Amino acid sequence: MKSNDPPYLPPLRFAWPDGHRCAAMLCFDVDGETTALSESPLFARRRTLMSQCEYGPRVGVPRLLGLLRHLAVPATFFVPGYIAEQHPRMLEAIVAHGHEIGLHGYLHEKLASLTETAEEEILVRTLELLTRLTGVRPAGYRAPWFETNPWTAELLARHGLAYDASEMGDDVPYMHPNGLVEIPGQWLLEDWEQFAFNADPAWGFVPENCAKVHDLWWREFEAMHDFGCCFVLTVHPWLSGRPSRVRLLEEIVRGMQAKGGVWFARGGELAEYVRAHPAARREIDFDRPTLTAP
Ligand SMILES: [Zn+2]
């Protein structure tokens, strides 16, 4: 494009509250030791591996809570039941800081390996557990590994959840036919692909330079801001609780705040707004019956 050509600016995908141009949901998946233990209970004997995972709840979460308070932004923490049991005071601290706690399996189970009955049993057990430990009934769910089964949305609605944040079918929220709100994410806005590394089990690739990741996330944010999308950023405290990455997150959020027009919301608030304002979403899929002009 020539330098004086106007940029492509389609109509905003969503009418966000109070005239905001876009929404942002900051997600912290506190997987801790569960990523390893769900692969094999024998990993419990591997102290370096376990300690790397424990760094998330023990060091990453306290530091990230401090950053969020410093920036005055709310966030959503998805916590496996096992981690909640092992770190009850960490859980209390997340709630005390005003953030939302969502479900994330018990031991970070891969849903594709579970029957519907087993998946429901884990859902019921973790709902009860997190409600008891936090005093608040969780409103949302993030599937471990972001992967759901065909029946997952039905199970979540049946047990009173307001939203799921596991699918990747759009860049603004949508409703499942049963009324469950979906707040979709994407692998581009995830820190595992950028920062995860472990020799054995073989996880991740080469830990990326924060400057490259800043460029990756910032370009997506700026375009999502232009297009009226929902910026769902997902990071793991064992990865993004490391000092240089805390700085990266600080730069990204500061940049978003400076740009303006961003509604920083917890998952439950987003779901509530989406449910209350079904006309806020602008359809652009040619094959949906409620199509408005592209
Ligand atoms: Zn996870």
Summarize the structure.
The protein is of the alpha/beta class and 294 residues long. The chain has helices spanning 34-37, 47-71, 81-86, 88-96, 116-134, 152-158, 192-195, 210-227, 237-240, 243-259, 267-276; strands spanning 22-29, 76-79, 100-103, 140-141, 163-164, 174-175, 181-182, 197-198, 203-204, 230-235, 262-264. Helix 2 packs parallel to helix 10 and helix 8 runs parallel beside helix 10 (243-259).
Describe the structure in your own words.
The structure is a single chain. The protein has 294 residues and is an alpha/beta fold. 42% of the residues lie in helices and 13% in strands. Strand 6 and strand 7 (181-182) form a beta hairpin. The mean pLDDT is 95. Bound molecules: zinc ion. Residues 29, 31, 104, 108, 144 line the site of zinc ion.
Radius of gyration: 19 Å
User: Strand fraction band?
Assistant: 5-15%
**Spatial separation of the terminal alpha carbons:** 21 Å
H and E string: EHHEHHEHEHEEEHEEHEHHEH
The total strand number stands at 11
Given as residue ranges, the uncertain stretches (5+ residues, pLDDT < 50) are none
Q: Which molecules are bound in this entry?
A: zinc ion
Number of helices: 11
